[in-house]
Predict the 3D structure of the following.
Amino acid sequence: MESIPLREAGHEWVLVRPLHVVTGPPSSLALINRLQSRYIVADFTLRLIGTGNAFVPDGRLHSNLLIDDSILIDAPPTTLVALRNAGISPAAINHLLITHWHGDHIFGFPFLMLERRFISDPDAERSLHVHTRRGGSGLLGQLCHLAFPGNVEHMLDGRVTWHDEEEGVAGNGGQWKYIRFEVKHEPLVFPYGYRLEHKTGFTLCHFGDTGPCSAVSEHAATSDLVILEAGVPDGVHGSGHHTPSDVISLAVESPSTQFILTHCFWSAEGDDERVPVFPENVIVAQDGWSFK
């Protein structure tokens, strides 16, 4: 397939190919230039529907990634708002991949299920496949009971299919296969990252919340695209998060990998002196970005 050169269009860039349109702010032109050939052969959609950390900085909802408008990574408290902003029905979500148990990554699950029960899927026509570590079904069921006693937890068995294997498939037709691996965060919340490989061979890694560790370095070096958190500023040690300096070090170690930063500690509105200039293979995400 022959690509069409990039052109700027007002405050957006647009990359047009047969059946492929990608839009975003001008600062992300570099991302598309680097990944242009990969998008020619890999037919999928990524939406960064939330890019903030637990404190929800101005202009950012909680970190949330949507793949192919049907695979959701984590279910933070702002999930329903993020899906609504993206124009995606909660009933369209077929697969949910959980990275760990902190509230800013799972406390939206009861609301997601409540909405599906009463609004977008009242006849229970759609099953949700939830991928999590062993014991996840019990924890998420308890969370639903605490949030909406009698309304949600009793209907999970008929609406949710649980998967606790460390390897699996996701997406309509199993277009993505994944492995789940441990990362470096608070041990009590069982932190994991996901390596997803598209049927075309395109590899995407989402590390959830993590500080620098061997698993992150190894998977980043062999991935096409990495969704990486930048949850705390420099000087915050032992947090189980990446600082801007950590991000720079990892990007330099893996120059052929493209990084998109999410779970950001800084506002999306205006400059922040704590945020440095990142290497060219690092892009700072904004809520609402989509890649098709």
Remarks:
- The radius of gyration is 18 Å.
- The chain has a mean pLDDT of 88.
- The helical segments are 29-41, 79-86, 103-106, 109-120, 136-147, 156-159, 214-221, 244-253.
